[in-house]
Amino acid sequence: MASDLYIIVIGCGRLGAYLANQLSSAGNAVVVIDRNERAFGNLSPEFSGFRVEGDAVESAVLRQAKLDQADLVVATTRKDNVNLMVAQVAKVVFSVPRVLARVFNPKREEIYRRLGVECICPTTVAAEIFLRATAARPAAEAVR
Amino acid sequence: MASDLYIIVIGCGRLGAYLANQLSSAGNAVVVIDRNERAFGNLSPEFSGFRVEGDAVESAVLRQAKLDQADLVVATTRKDNVNLMVAQVAKVVFSVPRVLARVFNPKREEIYRRLGVECICPTTVAAEIFLRATAARPAAEAVR
Predict the structure, then answer these.
(1) What was the pLDDT predicted at A70?
(2) Cβ contacts (< 8 Å) between A142 and chain B: which residues?
(3) Which of chain B's residues have a Cβ under 8 Å away from the Cβ of A133?
(4) How confident is the model over B55-67, as pLDDT tens digits?
(5) Radius of gyration for the alpha carbons in chain A, expressed in angstroms and rounded
(6) How close, in Å, is residue A2 to chain B by CA atoms?
(7) Which residues of chain A have pLDDT under 70?
(8) Which chain A residue shows the shortest CA-CA distance from B118?
């Protein structure tokens, strides 16, 4: 894992907090943004990064998090529209070299990609894993 | 992929419908259960399986879907509690050989596993993929 990056994680839900914890333990400088202060409770006690309370769709909040200096931005809120908007701003306005976004609706992946945003769709990923699990049935059942 | 199984998919949202479509095209006999008839609109026109409208937490609905004859049950509703309950019933009451369940809260995975249910948590899976994506940054950025 990379260990010397300035990384901004948008959204401190289960996914965002997990990533922030892992990326922080790996030695990166991590800033987490969430509009709900209580969400920071998902961070581990060892998290050594910064917390910014605010709505990431507001430029002032992104500037406070120093998005212009970020090596990587990861958008993980529950709302595809928010992730899309923030990812677009990170790319276009703040020239962030690498932007990853969670997108629940795979139909929007194409829009993200055109903007240079890498998308990860949990539903698609889970579907592929379910399909593989279906194929890998135990031998005893394979001969039923 | 397995192609001669009797498979029951609980929940016809994006994940359930995707799995039902794929498993049906692969030649399996597939039954999809959803309590909302409109959810079946997610199925592809080529889907050759059966639709059962009803709440999967009701045994009568599961009997209608012939759960006792299923080789595989996949629980994909949005509610962990529903997936847990249906998976448990499939295992214990209907003796289904293989049961897969989506679980959003990874803390519940242990409970499922003890019941012999295989769990797939989209959040955990997405997190791992995000972390790998973070590590695999382009060479040009690696030397910044």
Answers:
(1) 97
(2) 2
(3) 100, 118, 120
(4) 999 999 999 999 9
(5) 17
(6) 5
(7) 1-2, 136-144
(8) A133
Beta-strand ranges (E) seen in chain B are: 6-10, 29-34, 50-53, 72-75, 98-102, 118-120
Q: What are the residues whose beta carbons fall under 8 Å from the beta carbon of A58, sequence distance 6 or more?
A: none
With residue A128 as reference, give the H or E element that holds it: helix A122-135
With beta carbons less than 8 A apart as the criterion, state whether A12 and A34 touch: yes
3-state secondary structure string across B21-39: HHHHHCCCEEEEEECCHHH
A123–chain B Cβ distance below 8 A for any pair: yes
* Residue pLDDT, tens place only, B85-134: 999 999 999 999 999 999 888 777 777 788 788 888 888 888 888 888 87
Q: Do A126 and B15 touch (CB under 8 A)?
A: yes
> Cβ–Cβ of B122/A125 closer than 8 Å?
yes
Question: Average per-residue pLDDT in chain B?
Answer: 88
B15/A134 touch (CB, cutoff 8 Å), yes or no: no
Give this prediction's pTM. 0.75
Residue B76 contacts residue B102 (beta carbons within 8 Å): yes
Sign of CA dihedral B97, B128, A13, A123: negative
The reply to whether residue B123 touches residue A19, judged by beta carbons under 8 angstroms, is no
Enumerate residues 6+ apart whose C-beta is below 8 A from A51.
Answer: A12, A31, A32, A34, A40, A43
B104 and B121 in contact (C-beta within 8 Å)?
A: yes
Looking at chain B, which residue has its C-alpha nearest residue A13? Answer: B123
